[in-house]
TrEMBL record:
Keyword DNA-binding: yes
Presence of the UniProt keyword Methyltransferase in the record: no
Molecular function terms, GO-annotated: DNA-binding transcription factor activity; sequence-specific DNA binding
Pfam families in alphabetical order: HTH_18 (PF12833)
Keyword tags: DNA-binding, Transcription, Transcription regulation
Protein name: Helix-turn-helix domain-containing protein
PANTHER family, per the entry: ARAC-FAMILY TRANSCRIPTIONAL REGULATOR, TRANSCRIPTIONAL REGULATORY PROTEIN
All copies of domain HTH araC/xylS-type, residue ranges: 188-286
Length: 289
């Protein structure tokens, strides 16, 4: 690897220390003020909404290329990694917000976790763009005013209205919609549990026990909603986590295996190779070419 440029993750640091938990800016501002960040893969540490006004030929989220058309809008959960096109001219809006800002209580937190676009949907092409533009412009203008005791409440309400409207549009245009059914609720809870416990709980039986349902019922739910088995969803999450660490950190393969909950380095190597056809070292080397 001598002479090769090493890429490392740079956390999303756009939220200022005095931020109330929400910031909105244009992609042109992002490009001008943080170009060095965009030249490398960028990991989000907030929830993020990206509204693209123009088509972008090359963009990826968590190693998966995404198609960006005019007014494509992405809803990105914490921890995801963007790979920007260094030659593209990005035009649009970025909304960053924290759970603490968006959620007043546990009920709000559950609704955020269950939002169809933060929990599987991920992308829509906005239809009534004028309505969204008006909402975004109002949020942006309010976010840049001096803060008073009403600022947080007003901005939270504006954000929630935006999320409600976009969630309604997504569910109305996607016939494969289980949002009100028990299958979707089980899968949403299952995904949250995987994210929280993947280092220590690796069996479907373990998660089914936490959910207080049978493995068969959990398999039925995940298959109906995502087309994936419960075991595949566990493996999917672990593999994305492993690829992030291999691609964007200087941790050794041994350290990454331990970080992901593998007791032996050889177990991690075998697991990774089984799912990718490459050893962790070979996969990492490919990222630096």
């Amino acid at each position: 690897m001598k002479g090769q440029k090493k890429r490392q993750t740079i956390n999303n640091t756009f939220l200022q220390e005095d931020s109330i938990g929400l910031e909105i800016f244009t992609m042109e501002e992002l490009h001008e003020q943080h170009y060095a960040l965009l030249s490398q893969p960028l990991r989000t540490n907030t929830y993020q909404v990206l509204i693209f006004f123009t088509a972008i030929p090359h963009h990826a989220i968590d190693f998966s290329p995404v198609i960006i058309r005019p007014y494509s809008t992405f809803f990105v959960r914490k921890g995801r990694v963007h790979t920007f096109d260094p030659h593209a001219r990005y035009e649009g809006i970025v909304i960053n917000f924290t759970e603490d800002f968006a959620c007043r209580d546990e009920h709000d937190l559950i609704l955020l976790h269950q939002h169809p676009l933060f929990n599987g949907g991920g992308q829509i092409d906005l239809q009534d763009i004028d309505t969204y533009r008006e909402m975004i412009e109002t949020m942006m203008a309010e976010s840049r005013k001096p803060k008073d005791e009403f600022s947080r409440m007003f901005l939270r309400n504006l954000l929630q209205n935006f999320l409600i409207l976009s969630g309604r549009e997504y569910t109305a245009t996607h016939p494969f919609n289980h949002m009100k059914g028990p299958d979707m609720q089980y899968v949403q809870r299952y995904n949250v549990l995987i994210e929280k416990h993947y280092k220590t709980v690796r069996t479907v039986a373990g998660y089914a026990a936490i959910l207080r349902i049978t493995e068969k019922r959990l398999n039925q739910a995940t298959t109906n909603v995502s087309g994936r088995s419960p075991k595949q969803l566990i493996d999917d999450y672990i593999m994305i986590a492993a690829k992030r660490l291999l691609s964007f950190t200087i941790m050794t393969v041994k350290e990454i295996g331990f970080e992901l909950g593998f007791s032996q380095t050889t177990h991690f190597i075998k697991y990774f190779t089984k799912h990718t056809g490459l050893s962790p070292a070979s996969f990492r080397q490919q990222q630096y070419i």
